[in-house]
Amino acid sequence: MAVPLRGAGEVREERDGDPAAVPALRRFTWEEIGQRTGRGPPPQERWLVIERKVYDISHFYRRHPGGARLIGSHAGQDATDAFEAFHVDKVLVSKYLKSLQIGELAPDQPSIEPTKNKMLVKDFRELRAAVEKMGLLKPNQLFFFLHLAHILLLDTAAWLILFYFGTSLMPFIVSLVVLTISQVQASWLQHDLGHLSVFRKTKWNHLLHKFVMCHLIGASAKWWTLLHSRHHAKPNCFQKDPDIDMHPFLFTLGKKFSVELGIKKKKYMPYNHQHKYFFITLPPLLFPTYFHCHTFYIAYTKRYWVDLTWMLTFYIRFFFTYGSLLEIKSLLAYYFIFRMLESSWFVWVSQMNHIPMDIYYDNNLDWVSTQLQATCNVEQSLFNDWFTGHLNFQIEHHLFPTMPRHNYWKVAPLVKSLCAKHGIEYQCKPLLTAFADIVHSLKNSGELWLDAYLHK
């Protein structure tokens, strides 16, 4: 039975009074914390634990810089490893946490939440300390400078091809391909910047992120961070990972969900054919339709005025430079086709690591188990590294989201050893196999749904 407890605001009010009257911090059990998830009847309290300290985020979570849903997804849970993974300047962030602290775990409570693998958590934290000591979280800025340079060269070359060779079919196609490559590589770079892995200082990551994401690509940097951080916090967890929001309205995902959907006799789409209509829906249309609308909608409703201004510079630059060479119909066709090509490349790469993996509700597992059950790797090669933006090392990226991508291959053997020690499957497959597994997974899910829909 939970003990009636005071909110964080009440504790702060007492602290502002007579110092002698300041009460000692309360002691809590994991059971009490687990009841404060923000769900159920009022008051919908939200608590979480970081390094045995208990924080009441009931009022703060809406003001959380990373978004309310990101921090809210850890309500009622131990967020220690997520906190370590996402925050670069922990000293600065800890100052803001002080006013939210309402107590700490009782002395008889274990430091690691009962739902988590104690030894795995301990070993991973030792691994993270070793990674920091080895300097693997420090960026090589020359690597990222050269990457940005090749993006800008490709971006310029796409326009110069039309300028020098004309707008006939062959130059038109070659220019489209070159611009698509530039845009996708810019997407990988903005991903690095959004994870604060290019510069040691956060503000420089944010500034260049706006240039690359907003000016070079034409989307909101804050919009991307808002969604992508939630994906990293709880990958493949339904209602917490926005990357699987396509379930159940467009696709049915995961074995368990597909059976549940069939038993409930729900049919939003002919899911038994989803492995076929996938080719003509998600890959080619995600960017030119949904992302286009959603990024502007979020930027406007959340008043990201700086992002919107930067985004407008992309469209002004694009339509001014290419509009001077192409007629309006050709210009619109050029724009839509390169967005479709960019979208296809991005979707196949981003989904190959996740759709074939386990998809279900949040079971509040430890950080390593949460990430490993939802991610897999693709074999390393110079081409695979470049083509995927090093997202072929998806496991390492999810375990250490702020690690510069040029260091993934260095930490991979250590992660493999950790997985082997604890009997966790470390999946790594060829690139084409990873692509095929997306289709196979969708086909299997559709068949499971159909069987449950017809016979259960």
Could you explain how this protein is built, in words?
By secondary structure, the protein is mainly alpha-helical. It contains 20 helices and 7 strands. Helix 6 (118-133) runs antiparallel to helix 19 (408-421) and helix 9 (202-217) runs parallel beside helix 14.
The oligomeric state is: single chain
Overall average pLDDT: 93
Q: Beta-sheet strand percentage?
A: under 5%
Name the overall outline: globular
Number of strands: 7
Strand order of the largest sheet: 1-5-3-2-4
Through-space gap between termini: 39 Å
How many strands, what sense, and barrel or not for the largest sheet? 5 strands, mixed
Question: What's the SSE pattern?
Answer: HEHEEHEHHEHHHHHHHHHHHEHHHEH
Alpha-beta content class = mainly alpha
Low-confidence stretches: 1-22
* Helicity, as a percent range: 55-70%
How large is the count of helical segments?
Answer: 20
Query: Radius of gyration, Cα only, in angstroms?
Result: 24 Å
